[in-house]
Amino acid sequence: MRSVVISLLLTVLLNAPVAAEPLTLTNTKTSIEINSDGAITWKSCHAVCGSSNWQNLFEEQTLGVLGADGYWQQLSTTTVQYRSATDHSMIRQYQLDQQGFTLTVTGTVDPSLQLIASKAMHPKGHEGFAGLGDELRIWKLVDHTVEVSEQGQSINLTAQWSGVRNRFWTIAGKGNPGHLELYGGPIAPAALKALDPALSKLFLNSMWPGARQLSLGMKWLLDKAYALTASWGLAIILMSLMVKLLTSPLSRLAQRLQDQVNQTKSMLQPMIAQIRAESRGEEQVNRLNALYKEHGVSPLYAFKSLTGLLIQIPIFIAAYHLLHEHAGLNGVEFLWIQNLALPDHAISLPFTIPFFGGWINALPLLMTVLTIITARLHQDQTLTPDLAIAQQRQLYLMALAFLLLFYTFPAGMVLYWTTNNAVEAVKSLRFVLRK
């Protein structure tokens, strides 16, 4: 008799309605609140999970209509169940992945749901290039290919994965009768690949295949560096040094070609100047061609000096996309930098400059100083004085152009390029001291 009474009491307690307080599903990366009407509020974090680094991805997202007379039951920290008091066939279970960002809903589920991005996912209005990629875009998985289409903040679920994304985060889902899977988390290849191998292509989706593979290779270096240092800032510095080391044979080749161009230019410059002063038009062209032929030089010889640029451009593009979209850098501090995914914002200004914002960003200034130091130290002795002055002027103009370009870049990218410039400055200083 006593056991029957205890059993009845337990049944009443377990099936008691919990209308006042929302139930919570939690793990170390995701926190989901479920109200008595079935509406969920979803927050996730990545890399940095402090009190202020949780991203609100769903705000009051209703996953179908439930009966008003139902009962909620908290089965565990990651599992909640709903039962209707009148319709015993209406049972729904919410199960959060133990370690990830996926919620599985089974039972009485309507798969034709609409996912709506939270207000927190909308663009933040960051200055300059820092705001690129912040806009909300709709994406779908079609034939194992991720297709990112027009801008939008909501999507109707189908049997295939689809969702809404911004620069770092995505909400996604797929539904079948009686079974629904939702994802709310970072655009991180490993997390997305756990859902479907093809979803890893959502990361760096806008890049050409070859450039994307180069970015993924650099990501492998960055992740290995982070595993060694446990600091994303130090990992970026170490990755920059490793890329510099791996490309050093190509850099030496480019420098040899540049030296050849400088020597040829210094040799031919006085004669070219004389021909241009004495002749015009077709006569000038013929004399210049004869000069090149006499010295066994192609009229296009100067293009060899572009080799270094051709080496740097693909690496620059790959590094930019990687460090701009890497969700692990979002919210991460390093030295005075508050967020490696944004400009470093060292000093606030009392005014705002269009495009450049209302901050002094120290890292681009340091990068420019290192470029100028390198330009001052690097003086090719084979050049004539006039050509040496012209080369110095070009280097200073390039330093200014890079300052304007990098000023609103994410601090992670500027840190990468500043490290690269620091290496060049040290090499130039060693060359001067050796002489």
List keywords for this structure.
435 residues, alpha+beta, 9-stranded antiparallel β-sheet, 4-stranded antiparallel β-sheet, 17 strands, elongated, disordered N terminus
Provide a descriptive summary of the structure in words.
With 435 residues, this protein is an alpha+beta fold. It folds into two domains: 23-203; 213-249 and 304-434, no CATH class. Helix content is 42%, strand content 22%. The chain is built from ten helices and 17 strands. The protein has helices at 2-14, 189-195, 209-229, 232-246, 248-278, 281-294, 307-325, 362-377, 385-406, 411-434, and strands at residues 23-26, 30-34, 39-44, 55-62, 71-76, 79-83, 91-96, 102-107, 114-116, 137-142, 145-151, 154-156, 162-165, 169-176, 179-186, 347-353, 357-360. It has a nine-stranded antiparallel beta sheet with strand order 5-6-7-8-15-14-13-10-11, covered by helices on one side. A hairpin with a 5-residue loop joins strand 7 (91-96) and strand 8 (102-107). It is elongated and about 105 Å long. The N and C termini lie far apart (100 Å).
Helix content: 40-55%
Mean of all residue-level pLDDT scores: 84
Determine the N-to-C terminus distance: 100 Å
Spell the H/E element sequence.
HEEEEEEEEEEEEEEEHHHHHHEEHHH
| Estimated share of beta-strand residues | 15-25%
Q: What is the number of independent domains?
A: 2
Largest sheet report = 9 strands, antiparallel
What is the general shape?
Answer: elongated
Which class of secondary structure composition applies to the elements? alpha+beta
- How large, in whole angstroms, is the Cα Rg? 30 Å
Number of helices in the DSSP assignment = 10
Instruction: Give the strand order of the largest sheet, numbering strands 1, 2, ... along the chain.
Output: 5-6-7-8-15-14-13-10-11
